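Sorry, I am new here, but would you mind making up a protein's amino acid sequence and the tokens describing how it folds?
***
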Amino acid sequence: MQMQIHVKGLVRASRLRVVAANKLNVTLARFSHAVQEVTMRMHDINGPDRGGADKLCRVVLRLKDNSILVVEDLGANMMEVMVVAYCSCPRAAADYVI
């Protein structure tokens, strides 16, 4: 399973990448036979100077049969948004794969 993690407009980008990679590996381990590629994008829509629910986390799962599943969440705190997004991935994959 290949993994790409992109972070744009967020402080501590390297830390977010490490946490995201670890969490995605753990949560998608049981679907590694069906998932070909995982791409996670984390983005601060309004930029770092403005607050509010503007943190977006989008996870795209490309399955081995070339199907694509997209999970995303939007909120004020990137860590919370990321948790919701990667916790939703196994449910989406289970619904499709099984």
